[in-house]
Design brief:
- By secondary structure, the chain is mostly helical.
- The protein has a domain of 159 residues.
- 42% of the residues lie in helices and 7% in strands.
- The chain starts with a helix and ends with a strand.
- This is Palmitoyltransferase.
- It is an enzyme of class 2 (transferase).
- Its EC number is 2.3.1.225.
- It is a multi-pass membrane protein.
C-alpha cells in the first residue's frame, strides 16, 4: 500500500511539474525597457556612432542594468527594439527576449527562464525520484529474471526492459539535476556558465552570487512550504537582480555598509543605482541607498563610459 501511494504521489508531482514547465509562458521585459517611438526613429535615422550611443544611453540611464556587451556597449536587441535587462537573452527559436534565460529545451518545447525555472528543476527532481522508485521496486524481479525464478512468459522481457530504461534515465537525470543544483547554488544560468556576465568594468562569473542561502531563495522563494510544489514562488520581477558587485562611487564620502565589507568586492567599482524591491528584498541585511546618492548618480550613468557602442546580441 505504501509503495502504491508513493508511486501515485511521484507520478502526479512529475506530471504537474512537467505541465507547468511546458505551458508556463516565458516572461518578456516590461515596457520600460522598450524604446519609445521617438527613440526608435532616432536610432534608425542616425548612423552608427556617437549619435546611436547617445540614444541608448538616454534610454537606459534610469534602468536598473549593470551588464554590458563584450565591447562595453549597452545590451540592445534590434529585433525586439529594447534595452536588454540583466540576464535577459534573445531566443532564436522563440524569436523574443526571455528574462533570465537559461536555455531553450526541445524536450519541453519551451524556453527555460525566470518564469518556469523552478518548475523545470522540480520536473527533473520528480522525474529522477520516479525512475529511482521504478528501478528499486523492479530490482527483485530483475534478479529473479537472471536466476530463472520467473515463469517463462513474455512478462520476463517487460521486466528487463523496464529496469534498464528506469536505470538509464536515472543516470542521465541525476547528472542533469546535479548540474542545475550547482547552478542554483552559484546563482548562474547555463548561458552564464558558457559566457560569464560582463559588468561595466570587468567580467565576473560570480557577479550575481549572494551566498548559498540567498541564491536558493531567489529561485524557490521565502515560503518553504511552497518549495516542493510546482507553484511560482521565485523572488523578484525577472528584470532586475541584486549583485554583490554594486558599490558606490569611490569619490563619494558615504558607502553603504555590508556591500563592500569584504576585501573580495573592494576592487569592483560600479555606479550606484536605486535598487528595486526585488533587489532590496534579498539584501535586507544592508541599508538602502540614500536618495541623494541615487539622484546624483542618475545624471552620471549615461556618460560614465565614453567607449560605449551599440552591439547586437543573441
Amino acid at each position: 500500500v505504501v509503495c502504491l501511494v508513493a508511486y501515485h504521489v511521484f507520478f502526479m508531482l512529475f506530471v504537474w511539474s512537467y505541465w507547468k514547465t511546458i505551458f508556463t509562458l516565458p516572461m518578456n521585459p516590461s515596457k520600460e525597457f522598450h524604446l519609445s517611438y521617438s527613440d526608435k526613429e532616432s536610432l534608425e535615422r542616425e548612423p552608427r556612432g556617437e549619435s546611436q550611443q547617445e540614444v541608448l544611453r538616454r534610454a537606459a540611464k534610469d534602468l536598473p542594468i549593470y551588464t554590458r556587451t563584450m565591447s562595453g556597449a549597452i545590451r540592445y536587441c534590434d529585433r525586439c527594439h529594447l534595452v536588454k535587462p540583466d540576464r535577459c537573452h534573445h531566443c532564436s527559436v522563440c524569436d523574443k527576449c526571455i528574462l533570465k534565460m537559461d536555455h531553450h529545451c526541445p524536450w519541453v518545447n519551451n524556453c527555460v527562464g525566470f518564469s518556469n525555472y523552478k518548475f523545470f528543476l522540480l520536473f527533473l527532481a520528480y522525474s529522477l525520484l520516479y525512475c529511482l522508485f521504478i528501478a528499486a521496486t523492479d530490482l527483485q524481479y530483475f534478479i529473479k529474471f537472471w536466476t530463472n525464478g520467473l515463469p517463462d512468459t513474455q512478462a520476463k522481457f517487460h521486466i528487463m526492459f523496464l529496469f534498464f530504461a528506469a536505470a538509464m534515465f536515472s543516470v542521465s537525470l541525476s547528472s542533469l539535476f546535479g548540474y542545475h543544483c550547482w547552478l542554483v547554488s552559484k546563482n548562474k544560468s547555463t548561458l552564464e556558465v558558457f559566457r560569464a556576465p560582463i559588468f561595466r568594468h570587468r567580467t565576473d562569473k560570480n557577479g550575481f552570487s549572494l551566498g548559498f542561502s540567498k541564491n536558493l531563495r531567489q529561485v524557490f522563494g521565502d515560503e518553504k512550504k511552497y518549495w516542493l510544489l510546482p507553484v511560482f514562488s521565485s523572488l523578484g520581477d525577472g528584470c532586475s537582480f541584486p549583485t554583490c558587485l554594486v558599490n558606490q562611487d569611490p569619490e563619494q564620502a558615504s558607502t553603504p555598509g555590508g556591500l563592500n565589507s569584504t576585501s573580495k568586492n573592494e576592487n569592483h567599482l560600479f555606479p550606484a543605482k536605486p535598487l528595486r524591491d526585488s533587489q532590496s528584498h534579498l539584501l535586507t541585511d544592508t541599508p538602502s541607498w540614500s536618495e541623494t546618492t541615487a539622484k546624483a548618480e542618475k545624471g552620471r550613468v549615461g556618460m560614465s563610459n565614453p567607449a560605449l557602442t551599440m552591439e547586437n546580441e543573441t
